[in-house]
Specification:
The chain is an all-alpha fold. It has helices at residues 9-26, 52-73, 78-106, 117-134, 137-158, 166-175, 198-216, 220-237, 250-273, 281-284, 287-303, 306-323, 326-349; strands spanning 181-182, 189-190.
């Protein structure tokens, strides 16, 4: 008996909405005037923007469960699955490094950085895929608990203050000056996508793998119940570990995981069960292409000196006197997302899917 893979449109839609949100929050017209919901928390806290990246990693876990997990269930050979997963992860990490190099060359005030969003996605994908190939759901759940408990204990023992926390210390030791930010007073570095905090980010991905198992079974009830449980546990856990994206604290894993379970359940009901045609699929089926392509576009506009002029002429010059500086800044981001929606929509209509 052959296995027929069932594609859940809800996953494409939710992934696409997440990528669109990434583009929106990464590309304001004026970084000095960004609405609070479209900014990351400076340190402790969790804004709507702080939900975006963990939601994407959660969906990575869902996709791994639905694709690699399904192949393992049919007794497919494991060695080719491992090689394919590691190869794809290496390409994702390589693309992230390439984007960092382009940003360094294109932006005068930028310095070269090694970690990044795509790098973390690639590492989490590789580890999740290998766990999908070689372990069962219960062992993966145990790994999830060990990751959160062990990492949480490390934070409690070493502290969670900026620059002196174990994540920043690890970033400084491993990457030196090639990180997102350097403390001018101490020379210590920190990166929001650093290596040590990728361990709890893997826990987020494992939550997605568990969700993918229930999604494949059509068990919406478990998705909803787990969403509520994670939100409650995350809210309680913040008394030990404040919500913190930079450190990817256990409370942050649970809190963002709860919202991710809830959004997946909602998308499943509306898209898979009721057949709603929600926007987002075009971004979802070309997610990495949209993210990387939009980044390259921004760097090119900056390098050519076009971005400041275009923003001033098309948005700021007439919007600012009428609405203040925050409206044109947000409008630029919305327009940027719209441009890329047109691009990925054109690609979808012509069945162009860029995979790496």
């Amino acid at each position: 008996m052959t296995h027929r893979k069932v594609r859940h449109a809800s996953v494409d839609v939710l992934r696409g909405a997440t990528v669109a949100a990434m583009l929106l929050v990464n590309d304001p017209g004026d970084w000095g005037h960004v609405w609070r919901p479209l900014e990351h928390a400076a340190w402790n806290g969790c804004t709507p923007t702080d939900l975006v990246f963990p939601l994407f990693l959660f969906i990575v876990g869902v996709s791994v469960s639905l694709s690699i997990g399904a192949r393992v269930a049919t007794a497919a050979p494991k060695a080719p699955l491992r090689r394919a997963a590691i190869g794809r992860a290496a390409r994702i990490v390589g693309l992230g490094l390439l984007l960092n190099v382009v940003a360094w060359l294109a932006i005068p005030e930028a310095h070269l950085r090694i970690p990044g969003v795509l790098q973390r996605i690639g590492v989490c994908f590789a580890l999740a895929a290998l766990l999908a190939v070689d372990t069962g759901p219960r062992l993966r759940d145990a790994v999830l608990v060990v990751l959160l408990a062990g990492y949480g204990a490390l934070l409690l023992a070493s502290g969670m203050e900026p620059w002196t926390n174990p994540v920043s210390r690890a970033d400084s030791a491993i990457f030196g000056a090639f990180v997102y930010a350097i403390d001018p007073a101490t020379g210590r570095g920190h990166d929001p996508e650093g290596l040590l905090a990728t361990l709890p980010a893997l826990a987020t991905t494992l939550l997605g793998m568990r969700a993918g198992t229930w999604l494949a079974a059509g068990d919406t009830r478990r998705l909803v119940v787990t969403a509520i449980a994670c939100l409650v546990l995350g809210w309680m856990a913040q008394w030990l570990w404040p919500f913190n994206k930079n450190l990817w604290t256990p409370s942050y894993v649970l809190w963002t995981g709860g919202w991710s379970f809830a959004l997946l359940a909602l998308a499943h009901v509306l898209v898979d069960e009721r057949g709603w045609r929600l926007p987002g699929r075009a971004f979802g089926v070309n997610a990495i292409a949209a993210y990387a392509g939009s980044g390259l576009m921004v760097y090119l506009l900056i390098a050519l000196g076009i971005a400041p002029w275009l923003y001033r002429v098309a948005f700021a010059s007439w919007m600012t006197p009428l609405f203040g500086p925050y409206v044109p800044s947000a409008a630029w981001g919305v327009a940027f997302v719209a441009v890329w929606w047109l691009i990925v929509r054109w690609m979808e209509r012509r069945a162009i899917y860029l995979k790496i």
